[in-house]
Each structure stands twice: as structure tokens, then as C-alpha cells.
Design the sequence.
């Protein structure tokens, strides 16, 4: 009778699939020390037989098996029991195969020789998936019920059930960080920290220290040990916003940290293991940056295991009423009053507007309207719908025309104003023609006096 058999076996929670007996015993003993029982088999066929008759909370499988491979088990589990997390045990250096497994729906992977600390972290996170997720606590969420948003919400929920790196691509202001927080809050790491960082806002000279930390005395001004963003996100998620802004030198170090799951603080002699999930985002096309030599191809493939596209607001205009109501309620809570309402004409104007700045532009627009509006209702005249100044590239891509503010009575071409120049020049000409009589210029432009004065302040013409 083995040591494991002599001890009181706990309930069976894990299925271990490996053709090496010593690996099976090591994994079984490690799981037993965590209070978990395991069924151990050495082939795909034996694993399928157990999966058809018993329920497990986790499956750990080797990649290479006598009658198949671990990818077959991943596909089998995804088809028959998609709620069961499955993790791969793969040989060192087989990162490409592990990434294939993650794309198929695997929860995570560990490399041989198996480090027990990494194994315990993986098992701990995987078993949290059947617990009730912790909701995001910042009051922001995906608002709307359009088909595009429902699809995005379903994709985020599915991606929350594994540890694969996700690249979130979308225009500025679409809510990429909101998506990242949603994935974090629905996943096994919901109880851990969510650490967002804007990669374009960190000085290149301080970037390594900010990401990996430093030791006291490692450089001038390092008066004490400091943990980096990777250490701060331990047990949780590190969100790399605008990852395309990283300099090439930092991309090399980031790639090693992601692959080895370890970082070396500045001034330290040894690496420290880190337990983080990487989510990244950018409004840029990373594949184009790779082609231009501004982004490393190996890092691109490592963080871009799964791509999640966030639709711009103009592709889900049916969400604008619900979004606007949510924003107005939030503004009212901050100001301590009742939320203002949008008139039907205002909603129509908003839904015709292309919103080049997306949800962020809508938020700014409504906040400005609340500050300028005197009553409880926001009329179309209170909303400042300015035509975006698209360049030639956007025009070639078919950028939509902008609807002018209510009362202007004209559709403004993206390349310039209704009279051929940009709006600022058009406004200046109207003011000069009216001898700087603002009321007369506003009437000529089809604007309210309030809208005219706002533009004058914005452009320094007041």
C-alpha cells in the first residue's frame, strides 16, 4: 500500500493524465497536500472513459500521450463539458504548442520539469472558477443590448475562464479598460488586484523600474526597495494599455517576463517568480507596427493569443439612449441632484452623430451639456456636436459625414466646413462679417449664442 493510499483520501476533484508514473505520483502527492484527491491515468482513452462517468473540477493533462495528445482532450472537454478547466503539462520550450492549446480553450499550462509553486498557483486559480465571481467595483460596466455588445459580453465571459493573454483592440474611447476589468472580475483572479498601466505615460528611463521594481541603491535616487507593477499585480491581472507605445528595448524584457513568469528587479541578482495574467490593449494595428519594425513579432504573438475587438459607438447606435441615461445618472449622483433627461430631438441628433471619440466623447459631451443646461431637460441646442477633423486616410477609409448641430441645417463634410474651410475658419469669417457681433454671427452660422461662445473659448477667439 502506497503512502497516498495509507492516508485518508479526500474527495476526488482532479483528473491527472500523464504516461509517466513518477509524474503522476508527484502530481497526486502535491494535490493531496492541497487537500485535493486525484484520479490518475496514462492515456487519452482512459481519460475519456473517466470523464464520461465522473465529474471533476480540473483536468491536468500531459501534451504527449501514447494514444494521442493533450490537445485532443482539450477539444473533447470543450465540446462535452465546457465548464471544466483543463491545463496542459508541456515540455520546456514548447510555448507554441501551449499557445495552440490556449486558443482551443485550455485554462493554462505549466512546463516540465513541473515547479510545485507554479502548479499550486494554477490549481488554486482553476478551482476558483466554480465560485461566484466578484463584481467589478468601480461602477463602470458594459451598458447596452445591441447585438455587437451582446457578442462582446459573451466573448469576455468565455475568455474569463482561462488564463490566456488577451489583446483588446479598439478605437480610443471605446472602453477597452472596461472590457479588461470585466474579464478580470468574471475570472478566477477576481479576488486579486487589477493593475492598469498606460504604457505611453511612463518615461523610458524609468520603465524597467516601474514594471519590475528595484533594489535600494541600484541607481541614484533609489533610497529603498520598491516593488514593480508585476509584483503589485501578483495573484491578479496586469493590464497593459496602449502596449504599442512600448520602446523596443522594453519589449524584449517584457517578453522574457511573460514567457518565464519571472522578473528581475533593477539591481537584483536573481529573478523573482510572478503570478499575473496579462491583458493588453491598443488603438493601433499591432500587425502594422510589426511590419514597420516598431513592435517585436515574438512579443506580438505572445500577447495576441486571443484578440477581442471592441466595436466603436457608431456601430451600436441603439445603445446610445441607455448609455446616455447611465452617464446622466452617474453625473447626478456626483452632483447630488436628480438626473437630467434628453429630449427626443437630442437623442436623434446623438444617434446621427458618428462619435469619433466614442463613449468617452459622449461622456464629455453630456457632462458639458449638464453644466450649461438650465432646466431638467437637455435639448439638442445644449449638445455641442462638432464635426471631427478627419484626415485623408480616414476619408479614403470611408469615414462618415457628420450631422451638424440642430438648427444648422447642413451636413458638414469631414474634410472641412459647409463653406469649404474648417469650422474655425468659417466661424472667424462669420464674426468678421458681423463686425464681431456674436449674436449676429451665431444667427448666420445657425448656432445658439451659447454654442458660439463655447467654441470661441475653446479656440481662443473670445
Sequence:
Amino acid at each position: 500500500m502506497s503512502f497516498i493510499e495509507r492516508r485518508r483520501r479526500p474527495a476526488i476533484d482532479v483528473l491527472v493524465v500523464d504516461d509517466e508514473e513518477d509524474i503522476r505520483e508527484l502530481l497526486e502527492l502535491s494535490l493531496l497536500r492541497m487537500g485535493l484527491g486525484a484520479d490518475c491515468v496514462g492515456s487519452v482513452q482512459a481519460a475519456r472513459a473517466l470523464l464520461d462517468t465522473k465529474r471533476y473540477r480540473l483536468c491536468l493533462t500531459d501534451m504527449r500521450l501514447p494514444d494521442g495528445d493533450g490537445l485532443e482532450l482539450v477539444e473533447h472537454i470543450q465540446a462535452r463539458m465546457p465548464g471544466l478547466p483543463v491545463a496542459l503539462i508541456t515540455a520546456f520550450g514548447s510555448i507554441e504548442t501551449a499557445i495552440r492549446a490556449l486558443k482551443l480553450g485550455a485554462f493554462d499550462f505549466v512546463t516540465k520539469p513541473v515547479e510545485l509553486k507554479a502548479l499550486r498557483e494554477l490549481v488554486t486559480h482553476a478551482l476558483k472558477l466554480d465560485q461566484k465571481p466578484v463584481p467589478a467595483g468601480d461602477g463602470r460596466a458594459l451598458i447596452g443590448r445591441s447585438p455587437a455588445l451582446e457578442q462582446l459580453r459573451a466573448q469576455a465571459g468565455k475568455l474569463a475562464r482561462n488564463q490566456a493573454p488577451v489583446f483588446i483592440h479598439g478605437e480610443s474611447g471605446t472602453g477597452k479598460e472596461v472590457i479588461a476589468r470585466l474579464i478580470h472580475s468574471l475570472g478566477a483572479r477576481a479576488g486579486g488586484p487589477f493593475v492598469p498601466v498606460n504604457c505611453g505615460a511612463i518615461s523610458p528611463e524609468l520603465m524597467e523600474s516601474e514594471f519590475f521594481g528595484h533594489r535600494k541603491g541600484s541607481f541614484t535616487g533609489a533610497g529603498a526597495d520598491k516593488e514593480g507593477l508585476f509584483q503589485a499585480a501578483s495573484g491578479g491581472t496586469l493590464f497593459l494599455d496602449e502596449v504599442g507605445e512600448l520602446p523596443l528595448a522594453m519589449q524584449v524584457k517584457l517578453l522574457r517576463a511573460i514567457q518565464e513568469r519571472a522578473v528581475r528587479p533593477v539591481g537584483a541578482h536573481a529573478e523573482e517568480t510572478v503570478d499575473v495574467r496579462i491583458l493588453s490593449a491598443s488603438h493601433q494595428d499591432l500587425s502594422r507596427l510589426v511590419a514597420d519594425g516598431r513592435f517585436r513579432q515574438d512579443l506580438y504573438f505572445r500577447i495576441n493569443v486571443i484578440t477581442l475587438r471592441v466595436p466603436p459607438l457608431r456601430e451600436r447606435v441603439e445603445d446610445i439612449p441607455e448609455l446616455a441615461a447611465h452617464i446622466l445618472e452617474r453625473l447626478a449622483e456626483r452632483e447630488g441632484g436628480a438626473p437630467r433627461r434628453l429630449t427626443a430631438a437630442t437623442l436623434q441628433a446623438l444617434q446621427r452623430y458618428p462619435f469619433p471619440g466614442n463613449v468617452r466623447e459622449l461622456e464629455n459631451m453630456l457632462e458639458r451639456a449638464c453644466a450649461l443646461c438650465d432646466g431638467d431637460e437637455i435639448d439638442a441646442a445644449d449638445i455641442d456636436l462638432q464635426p471631427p477633423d478627419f484626415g485623408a486616410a480616414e476619408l479614403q477609409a470611408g469615414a462618415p459625414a457628420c450631422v451638424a448641430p440642430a438648427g444648422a441645417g447642413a451636413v458638414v463634410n469631414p474634410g472641412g466646413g459647409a463653406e469649404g474651410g474648417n469650422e474655425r475658419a468659417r466661424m472667424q469669417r462669420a464674426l468678421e462679417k458681423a463686425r464681431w457681433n456674436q449674436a449676429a454671427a451665431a444667427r448666420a452660422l445657425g448656432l445658439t449664442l451659447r454654442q458660439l461662445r463655447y467654441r470661441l473659448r475653446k479656440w481662443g477667439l473670445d
